[in-house]
Write a structure and sequence with these properties.
By secondary structure, the protein is mainly alpha-helical. It is built from 17 helices and 2 strands. The C terminus is likely disordered.
């Protein structure tokens, strides 16, 4: 139990670091007129070309999106484009409001809308890559990036992303239902783990209990500021040794290249299979397993997200036609708005409420994928279940998912608009304070 509690603590730390990166990216885009113009120019050819494409072959589009052969449409219908904006808004609200990456609901949302799992994963990766390139803040963090650390890590992450993309494509070629079942199972395990501990944290915060002992929810830390595991790994002398954190610790620290490659491989594999940037894993692995300082970790995490998501999205999915570009651009637009609103309401809600919201969001994704899994397993004759029962469960899970996330979004916007005077007052006060500094 202690191990799983520590693992949840590590993953939450990674999710918060990834959320901070997403907020920095969004702010960079929205506060730069040139970037906004570029975003608009990117949308024009996708939408105009997509409409022409849809008008020409509208009868075959459902087969292309749901079938086994050619995907590759740039546009489906205006409805699905606006739906993708809605998905992006909710993901952005989760990121900004809860302070944890909201990407974990994107693939389940797209799959619930009828998009095949492999297309949802590829589209999400492209959305992350496009956001990272457009709002790149890497130049601000270069002082915190250990080039040697990043390069060796990327060797592993590219290898992992290659394997993850190959696994997804191979399973899809074998059986599209098997591919969906595999991706759904991964999400069930991950979201089930996250939501169970998020609910435990929420109930722990709302109960009147004695405060937990210091360090009870984190890994054992020694006087050097590193976990015991990190100290042991850095003590392994297996050349070549990679040096880092020279500006943090006198003389810096060293770790074997092997541990960096293995860590990168795990992150790349997860990114390519699940369609995420990998930031939720990079932070805890770097800080708690490898013993890298938080400052260096944040800079290197930004670096790896751009290259891992870019490589996985383009080389493992785009070239095979497994990216729905209109959905990706819609999610990008929606997330830019959602993150701004979500981050503002954290000023007027309690910490326990935020923890509860995270539990609700992860639980919605878990229930959605858990209800969808039986029908996929039954289709492959792995479990006995009638087609009607499987479809009913999947429909129930889809309704629960969208109702819960819709209620979540409405609740956040209600808080935002009902407290807009307070939030505006805080903004004016902050601006006035900056003017006097």
């Amino acid at each position: 139990m202690k191990f799983f509690r520590q693992l949840h603590h590590f993953m939450m730390a990674g999710a918060r670091a990834h959320a901070k990166w997403e907020m920095d990216i969004s702010n960079t885009i929205l506060r730069d007129r040139r970037r906004l113009i570029i975003l608009g120019l990117l949308l024009i050819p996708i939408l105009i070309g997509g409409i022409a494409f849809a008008d020409e072959v509208v009868g075959s589009l459902p087969g292309m999106i749901g079938g086994k052969t050619a995907y590759a449409p740039a546009f489906y219908t205006p409805t699905i484009f606006f739906a993708s904006i809605g998905v992006g808004i909710v993901a952005g609200l989760i990121t900004g409001c809860i302070g944890a990456g909201g990407g974990f609901i994107i693939a389940p949302a797209l799959m619930s809308a009828g998009v095949k799992g492999i297309l949802a994963v590829g589209t999400d990766l492209f959305h992350i890559f496009a956001k990272a390139i457009m709002g790149s803040v890497l130049h601000r963090k270069l002082g915190n990036v250990s080039v040697a650390l990043a390069v060796v890590f990327l060797i592993g992450s590219i290898g992992g992303a290659t394997l993850g993309g190959w696994v997804n494509r191979t399973l899809y070629e074998m059986n599209p239902v098997l591919s969906d079942a595999f991706i759904t199972t991964i999400y069930v395990l991950m979201l089930g783990f996250l939501c169970s501990y998020a609910l435990m944290d929420f109930f722990r915060q709302t109960r009147k209990t004695k405060p937990a002992k210091a360090g009870s929810s984190s890994a054992p830390v020694n006087t050097s500021g590193m976990t015991n595991l990190a100290q042991k790994l850095q003590g392994v002398n297996l050349p070549p040794m990679i040096q880092f954190d020279e500006g943090v610790t006198p003389g810096g620290r060293k770790i074997s290249w092997l541990f960096l490659v293995i860590s990168g491989f795990i992150v790349g594999l997860a990114a390519a299979i699940m369609g995420v940037g990998g930031g939720f894993l990079t932070f805890p692995i770097f800080v708690y397993v490898l013993g890298v300082s938080s400052a260096t970790t944040v800079g290197t995490d930004i670096f790896q997200i751009i290259f891992t998501a870019g490589y996985a999205g383009l080389s493992q999915y785009a070239v095979y036609g497994f990216i729905f570009y209109t959905l990706a651009m819609g999610m990008l637009l929606g997330s830019l708005v959602g993150i701004q609103v979500g981050s503002l309401i954290t000023k007027v809600v309690s910490g326990a409420t935020i923890c509860g919201l995270y539990a609700v969001a992860t639980s919605a994704g878990f229930v959605n994928r858990a209800f969808a899994l039986p029908s996929k397993l039954a289709s492959m004759e792995m479990i006995p279940m009638s087609t009607a029962t499987g479809k009913l469960l999947e429909t129930v899970g889809t309704y629960i998912f969208f109702v819960v996330l819709g209620a979540f979004a409405l609740w956040v916007f209600y808080i935002f608009f009902s407290n807009i005077k307070t939030l505006k007052g805080e903004g004016d006060a902050h601006a006035s304070k900056e003017a006097h500094v």
